[in-house]
Amino acid sequence: MVIETVEFGHVEINEEDIIHFPEGIYGIEAINDYVFLERNDLDVPIIWMQAVHNKHIRFVVFDPLFIVDEYQPEIPDDILGKLGAKSLDNLKFFVIAVVPKNIEDMTVNLKSPIVVNFETKKAYQVILENSDYSVRHFVFRDSGVAE
Amino acid sequence: MLVFARKPQESFMIGDDIEVVILEIQNDKVRLGIKAPKDVQILRKELYDTKVANRDALDSIETLQIDDLKNIKIAIKKDSKP
């Protein structure tokens, strides 16, 4: 099928690429189907989480390990059950970025990642038990690098 | 910030309509009960913050230039830990 996007125009996707969010994401609960698109030409691991049926709903997301050296999410058991995952090994994590005009101020939400089970094609935005992860982690300032 | 002590089963009021009851204290967790009018939205702070951050993320895409993404690459490579 072909979906409409703002950045990439018409994009051909396979039905099996569609990931279902039974509860949407926080604040945007009514949008339940997304695809994860990559831009090959940028040579950078930025992924677009694009709503299938609404071209305006899309997010820039990253693999958290591109941002931080270690990511050890503590997921509530009921969420693992909902995702149909026996362990973390079956799951893929993405963190949503806020990309302001000044790129230096870019933040990612390490506290509430998108957790995807690509086998069951299900995903949830999960608020982790980890108390040390921030909803607004400054990608450049909080990276632990001396100025 | 107002700070005061309460025991389990004691409560306090916020305004005339909202009552917060301390139900149980165990180890590092406190269980609270909240009685409030239906139109008062009660969210855990991290959930509220996530909602706002999602909305900000969505808004930020509207002004995003694809060229900026190339700068992200340079910036992350420059600043990332060795």
Account of the protein in words:
The complex is a heterodimer of chains A (147) and B (82). Chain A is mainly beta and 147 residues long. Chain A has a single domain, classed as BH3618-like, CATH 2.30.290. Chain A is 7% helix and 32% strand. In chain A, the strands form 2 sheets. In chain A, strands 3, 4, 5, 6, 7, 8, 9, 10 and 11 form a 9-stranded antiparallel beta sheet that branches. Chain A has a two-stranded antiparallel sheet with strand order 1-2. In chain A, a hairpin with a 7-residue loop joins strand 4 and strand 5. Chain A is globular, with a radius of gyration of 15 Å. The model of chain A has no long low-confidence stretch (mean pLDDT 89). Chain B is α+β, with helices and mostly antiparallel strands. Chain B has a domain of 52 residues. A 3-stranded antiparallel beta sheet of chain B has the order 1-2-3, with no helix packed on it. The mean pLDDT of chain B is 87. The chains are: A mainly beta (147), B alpha+beta (82). At the A-B interface, strand 6 and strand 7 of A face helix 1 and helix 2 of B.
Detail the topology: elements first, then pairings.
The complex is a heterodimer of chains A (147) and B (82).
Chain A: E1 2-5, E2 9-12, E3 19-20, E4 33-38, E5 46-51, E6 58-62, H1 64-67, H2 77-83, E7 91-98, E8 107-108, E9 114-117, E10 122-125, E11 137-138
Antiparallel strand pairs in A: 1-2, 3-4, 4-5, 5-6, 6-7, 7-8, 7-9, 8-11, 9-10
Chain B: E1 11-14, E2 18-26, E3 29-35, H1 45-62, H2 66-79
Antiparallel strand pairs in B: 1-2, 2-3
Highlighted features:
heterodimer, A: 147 residues, mainly beta, BH3618-like, nine-stranded antiparallel β-sheet, two-stranded antiparallel sheet, 11 strands, 7% helix, B: 82 residues, alpha+beta, three-stranded antiparallel β-sheet, 3 strands, 39% helix
